[in-house]
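Troubleshooting: if your tokenizer reports a length mismatch, compare against these two reference records.
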Amino acid sequence: MTAIIEATGLRKTYGDTHAMDGLDLVAQSGCLTALLGPNGAGKTTLISAVATLVKPDAGTLLVGGIDAVAHPQQVRPILGLAGQYASVEPAMTGRENIVHVGRLFGLSRSEAKSAAADVLAKLGLTDAADRLVRTYSGGMRRRLDLGASLVGSPRLLLLDEPTTGLDPGSRLELWDAIRELVAGGTDVLLTTQYLEEADHLARDVIIIDHGKVIASGTPNELKSRAGRDVIEIHPARPEDLAAVAAIVGSIIDHDVNTDGNARQVTATVDEAAQFAAVVRAVNDSGIELDDIAKRRPTLDEVFLEMTGRPAADDTTTTHEGAAA
């Protein structure tokens, strides 16, 4: 495999904040790579550096084999960028938006119209192409914004939390569109705080924290690296959650988590014998259960174990958003 992005020793400082602190990273071509990290970890700074919007203070950065620091003008034509918020013009139709972007890319009017038709079809927007964008749903606007980033036929598409704020249905529609792009040969670097999204879409996952890569691998490799399975118990009655948590805590040394909304108790287990002991103890208590099972950890649980913070931790203050 060849690398679409190779970063070595990248550094970027904003005052006392080390947004990138000797960051080393390789993203392979031919797939979607998910970039995960708590707020302030350096995700957006790295995306901005790859997009040639931010110049690192030190280190080397190759994008498509090109030195992005020394030759940013050669990198930009192979990039597409879509962020958290749709940047399309609501007073224009979907088709007019895409044609306009195509013209900005230097396409002739006929080339821009042809490219717009292709992009709209690829993203399932042909039927709505001649409607004003102000009539589009949030998910449709986000797909149109994605389409605008594809007009120049980018080799690498940078997606910075593109599904933030979307309802579940719109998020699934955008996932399908992203999968089709990757299947069609577009390399994608995705930042997201929805770890389920990374689990579903990414072949490779890179976790960064405090400006450095702390783990990388496929989702399954990262889950295996966590080393412990998770016991998950769903009592039939919400009022039994505390009692179940107390039973689990008396047997397992690790933290026991209670989620009232999901009506579940979870904890990591070191060995099968612990799981069997919990099952016996809960059964002996007479508490009625809807379900009890042992499973592999989710990416959210792996992430929390590796960083000590949840993916959507909003308590970290960052410098002008670039250190996020």
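Reference record two:
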Amino acid sequence: MTTLEFKIEIKTPKEKVWDVLWNEETYKQWTSVFCEGSYAVSDWKEGSKIHFLSPNGDGMNSIIYKKIDNEYIAFKHLSEIKNFKAMPVDDAIQEWAGAMETYQLTENNGQTVLEAKMDSVEKYVDYFKTTLPKGLDLVKKLSEEK
């Protein structure tokens, strides 16, 4: 597995960036680069399950591994979701089960640096290298215009 790292500077306080990342409405906007209509279902508490879903019910079954409001969140991906149901871990899923995805915000003089890290199996590395930066660009745009 490869860990991909991305960084973007945003001219707004970290609280605003955090809200854009995880507020239901803006989350749907910036994650549309991965799948139009994608959304998340969770109570957003550390240790809780979170389901990242497409409109057809496919997605990722994960947990919020660590969360510090306005600073850091880590998701641990456990298995796939098909037709709104978490799938058992098979050999294909075992290859990436436990993959982490993290978002860290640091602020200096009203400027926020958003760092995203994502574990990926080799076949999706190129996809995430092009798609995640597009999502982060949308986070920047939404954060700076609100």
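Descriptive notes for reference record two:
- The chain has four helices and eight strands.
- The mean pLDDT is 94.
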